[in-house]
Task: structure prediction
Amino acid sequence: MKNNSRRLFSLFLLTIVAFSVYSLVQKGQEYIGKDYFDSETFQSKLYEFTNNIGPLLLNPIDADEAKKAITVTDNEIEEHRTRYGSLSEQIENINSQYEDRISAAIDSKSTKVKTALIKERDAKIDDITKNFEDDEYIKAKIIDSKKRAIDDYVANVSNEKRDLLNNYRFFAFKFTDVDTQKTTTFGDVDSPAAFSIKYGKGRELLKSNSINSNYSNYDGNPWYDDSDIVSTRLEPSDIDQALIDKTYQYEGLITIPKNALQYAEFATDYKAFKTNQIWYSIIWGLGLISLILLIASWKSHKKAILESNNATHWIHKWSIDVRIISLLVTIWALFIGLLLVEDGIEYSYYRISVYQLLRFGFAFVILYLIIWIFLAQLVSVLEDLNSEEKLMKAYQNSLARKTFEKLQDLFLNRSIGFQSVILLGIIFLGGLGLAGALVAWHLFLIYIPLFLFILLPATLLFLTRMSYLNRIMKETEQMAAGRLSNEIKIQGKSALASHAKNLNDLRDGVRTSISEQAKSERLKTELITNVSHDLRTPLTSIITYTDLLKKPNVTEEERNSYIAILDKKSQRLKTLIEDLFEVSKMASGNIELHKQRVDLNQLLQQALAEHEEDITKSALDFRVNTPDGPLHAYVDGQKWWRVLDNLIVNTLKYALEGTRVYVTLRQHNGEAEFVIKNVTKYEIGENVEELYERFKRADASRHTDGSGLGLAIAQSIVDLHGARMKIEVDGDLFKVTVNVVSVY
Result:
């Protein structure tokens, strides 16, 4: 609570000092050590009075003398003659002006009106014709026009003289023409004066001309009277230049009598100056006292003013660029606040009332709050600028940088980026063009075709794209919800159309993934079932025959038979488990290959020789076709022999008795191709890919002794070698093809 009070008091002193410094810079030169008669307000009044006193009061123009000095140049005659074009053009213009009016009079059978119009038209044509025939005729018209301009000026001078004496009645003067010694007096110059300025007698003389500067500098644009005779306001070319250039010199004085200070025209400004002078003196005094208090206990005031507070912490949450912009806006607001306080002082001279005090107090509170906000923002900005690390962090979190990065994403697809910028630019310029056309109606002639052929098509294209984007978003929402039946319609070749195609491909991929997942779940279930069955069968036999061996009344012959069965089932269980481990290691890639240059022809002959006895007993007719020479490949000989062995064993188990088995090894397109095909004894389903799965057999009833791992092991070995293995089924014809790169 104590810190808050100190902060409020410190800000109060700082506000007084800030306004004092501002007002000292703005008003110090005007009020310090100065009197009202030194003020800019009074000096401008004095200048205006002395500038107009000559042509309006001391030496006004003599109309008769000015008319005698009128001159007309050849250029003026030519300009007057051809102002509206050539003779034929002017006559044609006059005829066109009266043609409709005369026709209307004829239609209404108004003979008098027709006659009058024709007479008026012919008079104007005669006048224009004379302009081109007689220079003196034109000269007379111009002189007459200039005379009227002089009369108008003299009449205006009379009005301005009256206004000058009314507005500046607090001035009194007495001047004597140096040349003619003519004296002109206005007001009481002999009474005690509050202000006095003298001319002549060692001082500068008052100099003036007869033509008021407001008229002599007039641009001379023409005006027209009812008789169509061109006239101009008074300008140097209207009269003799010597009359214009003549300068009158006066000596004398201008005073403000003390008894004239009561006039409202003077008293208001005088009182305002004195009142403001008092106010600013008080403010500068308070500012000096506040500055002394701040300096005397600067450490405590500095801590109260500059330490972080709740406002600083809240502002610090903004990005650095937002804070800097906000700081600049606050600086602008600070000057507005200073002007509000100054305004409250400047107009307090009318009368000091409760309203004036409230107005000044409100302006001061506004300035106080602005300074408080300014300091909070300044502290927050400086905290991020006092070290390179903080500055870099502030830059990384700046709104400008984030916005720039997001705008860069607009051009990740350049087509969308450029089209968006162009379409929005066209729509913006279209709105700007409409605003311009509403201001200047003739621009509609340009705007309408641009609207029809550029703005309208661009707007329709933009709305069409937005509609298509909404459709894509809706369909994407359906996909996210798992409804994959609807395909997004592809419209055109835009970036949105490409995106729709990608979403359709993603939908197809998801559907395939779901199908594969379902298949994987089914195969997983079958795998568990098959593993359980194939492991349980020999294990059940082992348990059964072990229990039989435990019986005391078992004969020796039965015992030997039971032992033989136990040995066979144990070997089968061992083989099954070893195959399972091996195919698992191969599937995970956790196996090392020892590749070398191997003769595949010789390796096939060895594999067939290993199973020669089984082939003979099987009643199958093996037709083997191998090359005459060696066929080499870079493989692990032991593992590749396992592939051939598994395929031959698979054929012996599942080939139909009495049929032929074709075994082929050949060189084909730089590869060694091994093919084995036979007629199956069991029906094989259409889904050939499932035969690669572990524990999957062509014999679905599982009557054979196979483990169901043969093809899976063979496939894994082939994959580890980077080779290919393909199974084809055509009815009962079963065919396996293995390809591996051959070497020489």
